[in-house]
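Fold it.
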Amino acid sequence: NTPEPQNSPSKQTVAFPESAEQQQQEEKPSHHPDVPHPPIKKDPSHPLYDPHGYLHISNFSQKMKKNKIRQIFDKMPEIEVTDVETGEVKTEKLDPLDIDKQHRKKHVFFKFQSPHHATQAKRMLLATKPTYIIDFKRSRKWDPKIQKMRQERELKRIKRVNEGQEKRDIEDQVTPLAKKTYVEQLIWKQTEVGTSMEKHFGKKFYQKWITNTPFTEESSRTSGEGTHVPAYLKEYLDREVERTGDTMQDVATKPADTPSNVVDLDTSNHLTPEQRREVTQHATDVSKSLPYTYLPMVSSPQMYNYRNNCEFTCGKNENNEKTVGFLHGLFSEGHVTVASPANLKHIPLCSIEICERMDKLINESSLDCYEKMTHKGFWRIVKVRNNRDGDVILMVQVNPDHATSEQIEEAKKFIVEGFTSSDDWHSSASQFTIKGVLWQEYNGVSNSAPEDCPVSCLHGEEHIYETVLGKRFRVSIKSFFQVNTLGAEKLYSIAMQWAAQNCEDALLLDVCCGTGTIGIIMSSQVKQVVGLEINADAVQDAHKNAELNKVTNIEFALGKAEETIADVVAKYRSQFKNIVAIVDPPRAGLHPRVLRTLLATTAIEWIVYVSCKPGTLANDTATLCLPPNRKLRSRLDTGEEVPMPFRVIQQVSVDMFPHTKHCENVMLLRRCEGGSFISREPYMDLYNRRIRGK
């Protein structure tokens, strides 16, 4: 919504209705290009008043840069604008004041001098390219409410700086739960997981199913107050009643599957029996607010020094001295200092000693550390990977723009000699061997170099080997591998158990397989495994890992999951009765097209979902659990096969990251049979309490 233009022919004020009945009687504003949307506030003295005009294009070219976008308006004719005070008509160039382009989506937001300029720009853009989808929506970047929130946040930051509390300790920043007891950590994480699942899962489920689904007078009611059933779903339930002979209430309230073959995999001695009962009771309380079974969290077998992958930054500490460690404070608040990780509980001793050795080497060097503010300096990061056998590989990343070729060659020799000439610099308590020293040159702004940035080996080998559940895997410096090896064995054991109990005479589909870790581990429990991966390098590593473990019943398909799933299913549909899919996506979750493909592939009956972020897990599972939409009504009428949604059977969290706020989650979903997905009493209770606030 934007303010009304000064020269608009309509001078009527917008009356905001006080009730829902009055709002229904209010006429909707026209969306003609010549008539902008009504303003939020028309009073210029109001703090949220904004005289500018905005445009939003939702199918713009993603590769076009801002300077080329401005060239589009340079070619447009000038527009006539009437001065409100003098009444003089003058011509102005139609040029946006600001452009906000979202690179990952084809969305561009324009900010103009007035709503009249935005209206004229919309007319001219539609005449230039009618395929544009344009409205008067503004970007969050220019939202006055967002700007007000940022101002308040900045005032709070200034207050913290003045009070000397602008930065937390490095221990509180990296391991915020380290001061709690372990049972308190588990209960805190279970609460956060339950709250996140309750919020995201219930909100998305009900906004798409209940609140946005048009109901008709013929809609029926199942048992329970307020549990409406759309007419097209009632037709499907009627067919199920005729087919099964059950009553409508029996079909509509069919209970979910009872969790089966669940064993207590938590064999660690970190908790006493009383503490374990306390965690179990808390998980039972969390389950009451969820429409499925939430099992007690599995504790980590190793609480301290468990990280096998550490990345340290080269920078300056608070005393402006060269230091290697973790960034201290928030970069958005201007804090770019580095603090030592020596007192952190989750960093292994070998990584701490390598960090201290690198600290000493860069202080002996004449080259400076890289500064994020000025983008100058040479030393950037040092990355360390180790395994349970004590083998270590490390990589040093530098900025080649601020050093000559001779200095770079001398720095390479200096690093190799500093880490491999002798073992006097590390203690006898840390028994490790440096297998390889790697080198990477990168001049980008962020420390995260792209995947195609080359890495050269200065000394030794480029990879190490790690064993998980009897399988041996090759781990390179950039490959993904769980940071807690012993915790990963617990995580994969649960996923393997839940998938194997449903994999009899079934195909295991490993979606987002990466280097094939999960598929290779589960290959001994199933007849056939097919891994799907979009990264070619990861597929090559997966083939090498399969050869290393002499696994013959696994193959890998390179390509997008939404495209390769159909080919794999068509190839093996006649050989296997059911297909079990296991997914372990990154923190962002699965792509919507992958979710739609999994939902549409009726041969997939079970899904084991492994996730490290409860929010994305809730959103993805809510999409998989939504019932058939209205577009499938014609297919239902003709008796065609309609892909039924999934329902959640159970979920368990695994504490892979003690002393931090993160954990891994494993969820089991099963394809609905008949009308069983319509059992909605627990969802309604969740919806009334969380969404409606009852």
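Confidence is low (pLDDT under 50) at residues 1-41, 206-237, 243-265, 675-694.
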